[in-house]
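Researcher: Going back to the complex we discussed earlier. I've cleaned up the inputs and rechecked each line, so this should be the final set. Can you rerun the prediction on the complete assembly and write out the structure?
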Amino acid sequence: MTLDTTSLLSLALLGGVLGLDTVSCLQAMVSRPLVAAPIAGYLLGDPMAGMSAGVLLELVSLNQLPIGANKTWDTAPASIAAAAVVAHSSGGAASLVISVGFGVLVGWIGSWTVHLMRHWTARLVAVDESQRPLAASSLSARHLTAMTVDFARAAGLTLTALLVAAPLYSGFESSDAAAGVAASLLVVICAGLALGSDVRMMAKGRTVVIAFTAGLLASAVLSLWLV
Amino acid sequence: MARLGRRLGLRLVFRSFLIQGSWNYRTMQGAGLGFSLIPYLSRLHRGKRDALNESLGRHSGFFNANPYLSTVAISAVARMENEGTDPEEIERFKRALVSPLGSLGDRLVWARWRPLCSLLGLLLFGLGAPWWVASGVFVVLYNAIPLWLRVWGLRLGWRRGRDVGRALMASPLRRLPDRLTIPLAIIGGALLPPVALALGGASSADPILVIGVALAFVVLGYWRPALMGRLAALGLLVGSLVFVVLENMVW
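Model: Rerun complete. Updated structure for the full complex:
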């Protein structure tokens, strides 16, 4: 199965727009997997599939803080690529692992494209130490050019990821029960590791452990009662 | 003191949304600061192109701050320019602001507010809310604080000018991250069972066992956060490769 041209272009456009949100413009966090993945899924007709990939991708990317010159995953193209893979799959934990694993790869490659772009942007906009006069029109043009390049970078990366992922669109067809259990176990393990890491990266100490345990117990009782 | 005016204030806030448009390793947000100041400096130096170009050149050097608090610097610099402050003093002031604006905003927004909103969105979805409710609550709730920070920062910077550093130190914002710690941990704990059950749904294992396994790995993640965070991502990456290979060669 392949994506039609309209879907490819609309998802690439979405990748460009949401990619801008990551750093260059707004930072309203619509580029986070929790938002970007279900939107991509919605465009492909299956927002719930997109959301399932988004949940896992959000958990594993949450501990990356965009502080200073930190290289963080480019979550918008990653989420869209993951959503596209999982939306075309037959469902199940193995498809989820494949889609999110691919999303992680795209996000990591995206962080390197951002890194290269920032070096290029430095040459585009940097005023030397003598702080020479700079016309408003020239400054605006350089600034907006940098944003346009960021848009093109994110859109191009999304498009490339969607094209490269084409062989994965057939999904994971196996009905092997052992494969399903192994994939579910892997997902639960990775989600657990990511959540523990996320909480510790944000806060630590005895009070945090007590509060975490209280939330866990209340929710476990409620969840098991509902199950 | 001259008034900033609502319209000009809105233009400065609007431009602050784009302050990181040309973020780079050399001047970081420098060009963005200059870009954000264009409406104000154009008015201040109306009809004096050389003065405008000279001040824009000065403000496009190195600068960095948390983007949501950048309006503090934008309006404080605007006021100092308005008062005719010595350019070297403005430059020293900008460099002195980098650290407090960065640490305050990063601790509040990146280390507390964003994860809290994100975990809340995930929890809502785990408890059965439709995807658009979970995503919508995350986006709306998250953006309330950054939007307020931008407007608050603009007013504070304009009102306090060069004394804005002292005002930031006395601000209640400094204590807010600590107050968000407990809710963050409670939501994180509450998230574990529904997410573990939803993600581990394909297996027919006992729900208590699924939650228990997830909890064991949460403890591991909490113990070595940086390493285990990377391992989680690597596990999914390697796992996806293994499944793709098995799908094509074995099953």
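Model: Worth noting: The CA atoms of residues 29 and 64 of chain B lie 5 Å apart.
Researcher: Good, that matches what I expected from the previous run.
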